[in-house]
Amino acid sequence: MLVVEDSPLYSPEFFADDDPWAYLADLRAHHPVSVHRRDDGYQFYALTRYADIYAAYVDHKRLSSSYGTMVDGSYLPQKDSASGRMLIVTDQPAHTAIRKPIKTSGFSREMLARVGRTVRRNIHDALGKLSVGDRLDFSTVVAPELPKGVLEVLFGIGPGDAHRLLEATRTMIGYRDEVYAGTSPLDALVDAQLEVLEFIDDLIGHRLGSGRTDDMIGFLAQCVADGTMPRDVAVLNGLNVAVGGNETTPHTASLTVHTIDGERDQWRRVADGDVGCDVATQEFLRWTSTNSYVQRLAVEDFPVGDHVIPAGSFVTLWNMSANRDPDVFERPDEFLIDRSDNKQLAFGAGVHRCVGAPAATLEIQTFLEELAAWDKAFAVLAPPRRLRSNFMLGLTELQVEVVDAKEFGT
Amino acid sequence: MTDISPAAITDCVRTVLDRDLADDTDIFTAGVDSLAVLRCRALLKERTGVKVPGHVFFEGRTPARIADLIGGTHAGR
């Protein structure tokens, strides 16, 4: 088995400035299971084939989520301090007990309908403010509008508070990027995390007083009031939803705008109504693969092909590599806006599949619908600045100019 | 300088964790996590009026060191 010392898969710079897609394609073709070491002794196994990754996702008994789902999210061999209490780092059966109230109160059909309306209004308003000739950084001006509407509805807060929460979660996830965290990254991470926890704790406190239960925070507060959920658990899962929602779709939206600029002929087929926005959404999700990997810990020996990953090992599941696997996708390295039967793994699979996936998909599809209906378009002015992270593939700057839609793609 | 003493911090941690500890106990080894920091900070704010930045707890780790850091921060202003 290939062992890579000082592996680039740890390096935020490698993901921002180099070509991780090509590196992973090489692993996938020649070393579908490999070991990646860092000089401090940390090591993980990397799975790069779709079939192996899918099998790993659904084997949640042997591959635990309790030890942190990102490298450095926890310290071997300790469990994450929120394990057993926060959805993303909790194994069965406790996982289902937390997931069910979140799913029914935050992502029910009725809540999704409200989310869709709010997201559409926000995007419509943001696009409506722009004139031909305007120049702006899409990643900071428009992209945050996508999750903002979700927060407004799920947390029952106004746009101003939603914006404040977005800034804090951005610092938490991007703390290794000085754009967000300045020069004291760990201090910034800690302070931002506490700010989010405090904000959500205050929200729950208010709801305990008012008794309003018509959204996710209200429902969680009710669970706290009737004793079915400890307050700390409610707060931690509010944080989980806020971070999971905020730190993904804005990046997907920015990468989508960048992709459209380079594929104007294909985009025209969506704008003209020849390709459905639902179909295009799936290809944008596959192509952007915003969450590049997740980590698990093997609590028993875990066989992959001819190899056995020993119990006690960290295992990383590379979504971005699965989404370019030629065994599953024809012409995997091409963006095909009308790709059919698209089995993209951007949200993972199995019991831990992203609980907010329906909302995220709705955000991207609504964004595409509003873009397609807009009489203008975003023309990219300069190469974007990529987020310095191996965990989230995104852009921290995307300078665009607003142009007439008729001139775009000709 | 502020009037936050190591004893004031120890007392808050003791209340939140519901266990005894000394001024030189590492609060994270004693079981403090982010949520406990949140509760300690709220108690300190209630009792002293000072909102202590979260990273000060993680940098100081013991009530004595945390009090030092708070004093130093405010003295430098």
TrEMBL record, chain B:
Domain Carrier: 1-74
The keyword Protein transport belongs to this UniProt entry's keyword annotation: no
Entry keyword set: Phosphopantetheine, Phosphoprotein
InterPro entries (alphabetical): ACP-like_sf, PKS_PP-bd, PP-bd_ACP
Domain of life: Bacteria
Pfam families (alphabetical): PP-binding
Secretion signal, residue range per the UniProt entry: none
Protein name: Carrier domain-containing protein
Annotated source species: Streptomyces pharetrae CZA14
